[in-house]
Amino acid sequence: MQLLQHTKYFIFTVFLFTSSVLFSQANSKFKIVLDAGHGGKDFGAIHHGFVEKTIALNVTLKVGKILEKYNDLNILYTRKTDVFIELTERAHIANKAHADLFVSIHCNGVKSHEPSGTETFVMGLTRNATNLEVAKKENSVITLEADYKVKYAGFDPNNPETLIGLKIIQEENLYQSITLASKIQDNFTNELNRKNRGVKQAPIWVLDATVMPGVLVELGFLSNKIEGAYLNTEKGQDELAKAIADGILSYKKEYFGTASVPSTPEKTTKSVVDKPAVETKPTPKQEPQKVTIETKEQLENKPNITSVDSKSVVFKIQIAASGKLMDLTPSNFKGLHPTSLYEENGLYKYYYAATNSYKEAQQLVKEAKDKGYEAAFIVPFLEGKKIKMEESMKKN
Asked: How far apart, in whole angstroms, are the C-alpha atoms of residue 259 and residue 261?
């Protein structure tokens, strides 16, 4: 019976995803659902008098106020006030709206007062114990719902074995989610000098249940008194909100080809936040993409790589993305070789290996993950240019 329930759930979510893609293509506005974590009876993390549900809501509303200035964006919220919203409802809001992006905002909190820094999660299975603990914490809100055993079909947020049952619905969503997460993390690190704990994969229910690219942002640790104090200030919340909003705008430009331009003050949508919004500068005109792609001859001369036809679809394994330029030496990538670089919108993306075989690419992903790159994923290229996964399948 439980298997049947999961099968029905999977078929339904795939149907929703297909409908969402078709709807988004016909809809001129880029739709973003902002999700303030916790709320109402669910306080989230509480340390040193800092309350997660309040900080998450404040930052979410500030992100929304920045984005509402752009006429080509449609901003929706799962909550704008201190109310309890079930996880199923949060996902339902995003799926029903056929959103293009889902961004959930949270704060971290642990027993130790030492940990600090920002991290952004995407949906995925993981063996990492720390990531599982975060997933269990964010999923634990399920037990506050009266009929959670029925709604979640036996899903137990405290049992790691049940987390294995979660699946990534669509590979392209994961790729796009990691791209957005990387942009947000780079903004936190490069613009705000926050400690970067990285982009991570974890089986978080609300990301699994939404059928569009999505991320869960952990703004920092309330259990760290210094970082918690920063998160609790107007200045800190303004800065973090701008970093997230800028990441979303950069992502939208990359995937939809146009930069959003703020509307005139007269047309600016009124936000529920009364204080002045953080100004977002229009995205400057980007230089043409600088691409470093190995030639067929170079690839053929490297070990452990199938001979690659550069005129066919080439699958590479993205293992890292950063604003920092690194030498392509094995010591910089945990011994992985060969590696290549693709510079895109000021972000350096690093890839391991190259193959024309998707099956071989899946094995290379496993190799990268075994080396510690748990968020590694496949990226298709055609004649040196990145293409979407569905396009690569049509050309193969």
From this structure: 6
Long-range contacts, stretch 79-85, CB < 8 angstroms, 24+ apart: 79/35, 79/36, 79/39, 80/36, 80/272, 81/39, 81/57, 82/39, 82/40, 82/53, 82/54, 82/57, 83/39, 83/40, 84/39, 84/40, 84/41, 84/42, 84/144, 85/39, 85/40
Let me know: does 175 contact 199? Beta carbons within 8 Å. Answer: no
Tens of pLDDT, residues 168-179: 344 567 888 989
Q: Residue 124 has which token pair? A: 């995925």
Dump pLDDT digits (tens) for 128-146: 444 445 445 555 554 555 5
Tokens describing residue 186: 């780079």
Cross-strand pairs, 262: 70
Burial pattern 28-44, b for ≥16 Cβ within 10 A else e, equals: eebbbbbbbbbbeebeb
pLDDT at 364 over 90: yes
CB atoms within 10 A of CB 153: 16
Encoded tokens for 104: 């959930």
Residue at token pair 């011994």: 335
**How is residue 305 annotated by DSSP?**
-
CA 112 to CA 88: how far, in whole Å?
31
295 vs 117, higher pLDDT = 117
10 Å CB burial of residue 257 (0-12, 13-18, 19+) is: exposed
Q: At 213, is the secondary structure helix, strand, or coil?
A: coil
Q: Where are the alpha helices (DSSP H) in 193-282?
A: 205-209, 225-231, 234-256
CA gap 226, 1 in Å, rounded? 49
Rounded to the nearest 10 degrees, what angle do helices 52-67 and 234-256 cross at?
50
Residue 262 is given by DSSP the state B
**CB-count exposure of residue 88 (10 Å: 0-12, 13-18, 19+):** middle
* Mean pLDDT (whole number) for 308-337: 86
